[in-house]
Amino acid sequence: MLKIDRRLIAHFDWPLLFALTLLLAAGLLTVLSATHTQEQLVSGLFLRQLLWAAVGAVAMLAILLFDYNALKRWAWLFYGVTLVLLLLVPLLGIKVGGARRWLSFAGVSFQPSELAKLSVIVMVASFFQHRVSEHLLHWKAALVGLVLAGVPALLILRQPDLGTSLVVLAVALAMVIAAGLSLWWLVGAVLCALPILPYVWHHLKPYQQRRLLMFLNPEQDPLGNGYHVIQSKIAIGSGMWSGKGLFHGTQYRLNFLPEQHTDFIFAVFAEEWGFVGACVLLGLYLFLLYRCWIAITRARDAFGLLLGFGVTAMIFVQVLINILMAAGALPVVGVTLPFLSYGGSSLLVCMVGVGLLLNISMRRFMF
User: Fold this and answer.
1) Residues 210-262: pLDDT tens digits?
2) Residue 246: strand, helix, or coil
């Protein structure tokens, strides 16, 4: 019989769980609103999202029952399985909207690219933990860590999924900085990387190139590549101060807003709840990230610190990219908004990530 130390409950981060619960509730309500029709209030997409939220809650509970240090023993296996799944995507993956990103087992579809975010975080944290000396990381170790992230990032980019590959690389870079690599090495790496940008550009898909070119002036192609951003900004602006109310957003109800329940769900939320609601949502994310930072500061070992920092960076980068993308301040790269956007794989990974942070905070007294 599994025994639970009472100190674990005493050190549980209830504010972090509270912030997560509020964001999940907001996400489910927004998905319900974005997918409902006059004939059917509760859509199948909402029910699937609700099911994934329940699965995520169970996964979080399972994560809390075991010491997070056990992940160190399974890091390479987790990483290897993820690479195998990514390699299977071009062969056995399901093609949706011109991209082959999903695998299906027993009728359940999931994205291995989402799993790659967690596997890279665990792998890099495990690799760095014994290589951080006096809060400094040697450049050779940093290079290996970036390569460990670069391999799955390249496999994800070939799906094609530019947004997720950028998130994976950004998280790995954040972990390198957290591990103590000198910023001068990073400056040098950026300067060395500049010559390969033309090579990267020529290997992007044509639609990805058009999205990047339309970023500065989407009005050049208002019915084509600039359509997504234009309609998203219209939806956000039409919410004005207090919003149009739940189920009353016109941009998504009239199908003007593309990808309204996934990439552009922030525009749906802002149209319904207005500037005030959007500020409250941003406040919730800031509070969640603040509690994530508190959990990081409570880590008593290098592995826990790097693991927590990686998860926090993953959530932060996705929130930043998605909201700026919806507001037209970044190119459209297809990054979901954590806990709000529809998508079972993304929701599950983010909830497991928060579970790891709760685990780190709970076990701070054991070192």
Assistant:
1) 666 666 566 665 665 667 788 888 888 887 888 888 877 777 666 667 777 88
2) coil
- The last residue of one of the domains, among 169, 184, 199, is 184
**pLDDT tens per residue across span 276-322:** 999 999 999 999 999 999 999 988 888 999 999 999 999 999 999 99
**Comparing C-alpha atoms, which of 71, 158, 69 is closest to residue 112?**
158
- Are 302 and 229 in a shared domain? yes
Pair 126, 71: CB distance under 8 Å: yes
Q: Angle formed by the axes of helices 344-362 and 302-326, to 10°? A: 140
For residue 171, what are the domain limits? Answer: 71-184
337 vs 364: which has the higher pLDDT: 337
Judge if 88 and 18 occupy the same domain.
Answer: no
In this structure, what token pair is assigned to residue 30?
Answer: 């927004």
3-class DSSP assignment, residue 281:
helix
State which amino acid sits at residue 330.
L
Burial readout 278-303 (b: 16 or more C-beta within 10 A, e: otherwise): beebeebbebbbebbeebbebbebbb
Half-sphere exposure of 252 (CA within 13 A, CB side): 33
Q: Are 34 and 268 in contact (CB under 8 A)?
A: yes
Q: Are residues 356 and 262 in the same domain?
A: yes
Query: Half-sphere exposure (CA, 13 Å, Cβ side) for 165?
Result: 19
> The whole model's pTM is what?
0.89
Q: Decide if 298 is inside a domain.
A: yes
